[in-house]
């Protein structure tokens, strides 16, 4: 009897503490979310143009993985994926634009590093894409590994981790090279095509994207070596914990939807009929997830209905059946041999 009484008392105390914390969280103001709602749209920083991530189509409509992540976040907030304005930003201006309030969030092929995380006044939310630094050269160059590029001129983008990764690698093998620095990827591509550069160094996904837009993609090859870890994720400004929670858990939700087998095609039926407690909680049949981050209980349902799960987004933006043609690899979910792993949403 004593043990049962203590257990019951502990359960009540735990519920009170948890409920109190949730209530306290719900009353904390979010300047960013309030501004977005007052404005009526999300302002999302994206790349100036990388196929598969963010590139205007023939109608001038932005398309790509990062673009879809922005649209999904708008759906989470407004239940309307069109309520987003895209701001193209170069590598060297992206963090300044975010810090100054020009954009609400960056979904822009941005790697998490220790110094970025601790010195820029910004916060990295969570990883949604895994990449690594590589090099692209002409297929007939005779170069099969980076070590073969002694004395080569290499195109690089200003303000990226790729500048340092390239310099560190060649320094480590005591080989010289000549960097040629550009503000934008299209400038580097033009220099590569003209012969001004012997190679282009950046993340492998961007190399595959650039190769797909070359006049003759078969003339170019991406070397198989990788020289860094490049985990991409959304960045926000520090000082707004609720906005951090929204961006972090929204990104997890896109991955979680794939883990749960929820798609654009089945999500409405699953919300009506599923008896799985995880699915019901995720889709807002029970409201606690939405309440905890000041969003509608159906926020994750609205995301999946609007843009689909992570796998669906990936396949239509950069998967094997697209011009980019990039296999999932590490960007598959963990149950399929990849690195993507949604944190528990409960």
UniProtKB/TrEMBL annotation:
<dbReference type="InterPro" id="IPR051455">
    <property type="entry name" value="Bact_solute-bind_prot3"/>
</dbReference>
<dbReference type="InterPro" id="IPR001638">
    <property type="entry name" value="Solute-binding_3/MltF_N"/>
</dbReference>
<dbReference type="Pfam" id="PF00497">
    <property type="entry name" value="SBP_bac_3"/>
</dbReference>
<keyword id="KW-0813">Transport</keyword>
<protein>
    <submittedName>
        <fullName>Amino acid ABC transporter substrate-binding protein</fullName>
    </submittedName>
</protein>
<dbReference type="InterPro" id="IPR018313">
    <property type="entry name" value="SBP_3_CS"/>
</dbReference>
<feature type="signal peptide">
    <location>
        <begin position="1"/>
        <end position="24"/>
    </location>
</feature>
<comment type="similarity">
    <text>Belongs to the bacterial solute-binding protein 3 family.</text>
</comment>
<keyword id="KW-0732">Signal</keyword>
<feature type="domain" description="Solute-binding protein family 3/N-terminal">
    <location>
        <begin position="41"/>
        <end position="270"/>
    </location>
</feature>
């Amino acid at each position: 009897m004593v043990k049962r009484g203590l257990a019951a008392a502990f359960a009540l105390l735990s519920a009170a503490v948890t409920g109190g914390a949730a209530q306290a969280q719900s009353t904390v103001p979010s300047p960013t979310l309030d501004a977005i709602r007052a404005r009526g749209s999300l302002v999302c920083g994206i790349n100036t143009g990388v196929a598969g991530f963010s590139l205007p189509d023939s109608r001038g409509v932005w398309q790509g993985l990062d673009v879809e992540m922005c649209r999904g976040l708008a759906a989470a907030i407004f239940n309307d994926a069109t309520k987003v304005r895209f701001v193209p930003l170069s590598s060297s201006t992206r963090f300044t634009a975010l810090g100054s309030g020009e954009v609400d969030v960056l979904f822009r092929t941005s790697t998490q590093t220790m110094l970025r995380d601790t010195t820029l006044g910004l916060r990295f939310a969570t990883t949604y894409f895994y990449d690594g630094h590589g090099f692209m050269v002409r297929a007939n160059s005779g170069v099969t590994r980076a070590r073969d590029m002694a004395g080569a001129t290499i195109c690089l983008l200003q303000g990226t981790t790729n500048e340092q990764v390239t310099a560190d690698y060649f320094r480590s093998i005591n080989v010289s090279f000549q960097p040629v620095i550009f503000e934008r990827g299209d400038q580097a591509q033009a220099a590569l095509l003209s012969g001004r550069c012997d190679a282009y160094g950046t993340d492998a996904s961007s190399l595959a994207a650039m190769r797909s837009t070359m006049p003759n993609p078969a003339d170019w090859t991406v070397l198989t070596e990788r020289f860094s870890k490049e985990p991409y994720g959304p960045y926000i400004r520090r000082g707004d914990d609720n906005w951090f929670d929204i961006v972090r858990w929204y990104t997890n939700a896109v991955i979680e939807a794939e883990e749960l087998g929820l798609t654009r095609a089945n999500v409405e039926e699953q919300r009506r009929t599923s008896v799985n407690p995880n699915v019901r909680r995720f889709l807002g049949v029970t409201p606690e997830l939405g309440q905890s981050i000041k969003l509608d209980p159906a926020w994750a349902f609205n995301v999946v209905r609007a843009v689909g799960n992570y796998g669906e987004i990936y396949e239509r933006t950069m998967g094997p059946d697209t011009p980019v043609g990039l296999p999932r690899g590490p960007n598959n979910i963990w149950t399929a041999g990849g690195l993507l792993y949604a944190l528990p949403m409960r």
